[in-house]
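tool=predict chain=A
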Amino acid sequence: MHKLLQPNQEYIPNTIDSALLSGLLLENKARYADGSLIKPKKQEEIFNKRHKVIDPWRAEYLDAGFEQRDDGLYILFNHIIQPNNTLKPMNEGKLMHTLM
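tool=predict ok
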């Protein structure tokens, strides 16, 4: 997915972006790219499409990889494609108190 999006300056949202969007939708504070407020009914519809349990199941891509290291579990995110066609995370963070 990164290979499809990166040439057009598009990206896969990371877990932080996804959580922020969910919060904005719940508070009816989400806006369009031009800055205009999205109607509350539309915000509820978007939130439900992302979170409501329905059949068939659906999913969305999130830019998150995980790596176990000697000192703990890390989340890797904001990946970019390198010239050799590999993914490189631009950010990482050690996860604390993670439920496995």
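Helices lie at 2-5, 15-26, 40-51. Residues 80 and 86 are 8 Å apart (CA to CA).
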